[in-house]
Write a structure and sequence with these properties.
This is Glycosyltransferase involved in cell wall bisynthesis. GO terms for molecular function: transferase activity. 47% of the residues lie in helices and 14% in strands. It has an eight-stranded mixed beta sheet with strand order 3-2-1-5-7-6-8-9, sandwiched between helices. Strands 4-10 form a two-stranded antiparallel sheet. It is an alpha/beta fold and 349 residues long. It is elongated, with a radius of gyration of 24 Å. It is built from ten helices and ten strands. It folds into two domains: 250 residues, Spore Coat Polysaccharide Biosynthesis Protein SpsA, Chain A (Alpha-Beta Complex), CATH 3.90.550; 70 residues.
Length: 349
């Protein structure tokens, strides 16, 4: 009886000026996930990041368009494997959790495993980042009716069919927002697991800018909400305009009923205009929602054409959430298209 080959794994490590940390990250990945091919994407670094990564045993590639989103888009297009591990090159995530995340994906099988950050050191989160993350988590959970615990985490594991069906439109740090919304909106089988999170390596500096990046994330989140949930967004605008029209117009109507006169004509015209706009936004939301449903059907059919992750039965005594003890999960069906599992040899095109 032939033995199925082991799933191929690639680790994608985006880097910008991480000379002090990247060597340890690559070495730790080789130690904890020896089967993985480690690809470091040097993103406009001005230090020895690429040289140090190469000396540590990584495949080094260069992405000249600055921004983490550009790196992820390039890597997802270039690399072909069964399992994709995405981790930052600043050594803030505990690479010892990587094997558990890969096993969780394969034992589901899942298409997306999200590493929910648990602080190993009290100062791992910068001021404002934790509260901002909580706010964005709440917005996404409300809008898409799926509980999201850490949507800005950069530590994730994906299946091939998730990667090859992900459009990757973002350019910078908002890529995590796009990944999260793609996962919850497409309703792919996914799960969250806790991972260690610590301070940056000594001598390195964070590339995140709290307010600048926060506004960028808020902007891309607003755009994605409008594109993916148009009925919700336009419905809320319609409700707001309609309520304002009623507040302004009801006293005018009441006055007209009592006296037969319209003493506040400008207010009456404004109320009528706002009510018309409310109707326009509502109709627009319904029309756009129909287009979104059609696009989702096409995207879903493309997703189902791709093979599911190679299934690996969970060890006896292990909970259904996965070997690492998942903190949340959805859609655990092994193969939604009914196709047989297939492993492909990992390769870089």
């Amino acid at each position: 009886m032939s033995i199925a080959p082991s799933p191929s794994v690639v680790a994608i490590v985006p880097c910008h000026n991480e000379e002090a940390a990247i060597g340890k990250v690559v070495s730790d990945l080789h130690r904890h996930v020896p089967a993985a091919e480690v690809y470091v994407y040097d993103n406009c670094s001005t230090d020895r990041t690429a040289e140090v990564a190469r000396q540590a045993g990584a495949h080094v590639r260069v992405e000249n368009e600055k921004g983490k989103g550009n790196v992820v888009r390039r890597a997802f297009a270039d690399l072909d494997a069964d399992v994709y591990l995405l981790i930052d090159g600043d050594d803030t995530y505990d690479t010892a959790d990587a094997p558990m995340m890969v096993e969780t994906l394969l034992s589901g099988p899942y298409d997306h495993v999200l590493g929910v950050r648990r602080q190993v050191t009290s100062s791992a989160y910068r001021t404002g980042h934790e509260s901002g993350n909580r706010l964005f988590n709440g917005i996404v959970s409300f809008a898409f009716r799926r509980e999201v615990t850490d949507m800005l985490s950069g530590y994730r594991v994906f299946s091939r069919r998730f990667v090859k069906s992900f459009p990757a439109l973002s350019r910078e740090f908002e890529i995590e927002t796009e990944l999260t919304i793609h996962a919850v909106n497409a309703r792919v089988p996914q799960v969250e697991v806790p991972v260690g999170f610590r301070d940056r390596a000594e001598g390195t500096e964070s590339k995140l800018r709290t307010y600048h990046d926060g506004f960028r994330i808020l902007r891309i989140l607003s755009q994605l909400l409008f594109l993916e949930r148009p009925l919700l967004v336009n419905g809320l605008l319609s409700l707001l305009l309609g309520a304002t029209a009623l507040i302004l117009g009801l006293p005018v109507v009441w006055n007209f009923v009592q006296t037969g006169l319209v003493p506040r004509l400008p207010t009456a015209l404004l109320a009528a205009a706002l009510m018309i706009l409310a109707g326009v936004f509502l109709v627009l939301g319904v029309v756009l929602n129909g287009l979104v449903m059609s696009r989702r059907e096409t995207s879903r059919l493309f997703y189902l054409r791709l093979n599911p992750p190679p299934f690996r039965s969970a060890p006896s005594g292990t909970s259904a959430e996965g070997p690492g003890g998942a903190v949340g999960g959805t859609d655990t069906a092994p193969a939604e298209d009914g196709s047989h599992n297939r492993t492909t040899a990992g390769k870089a095109r």
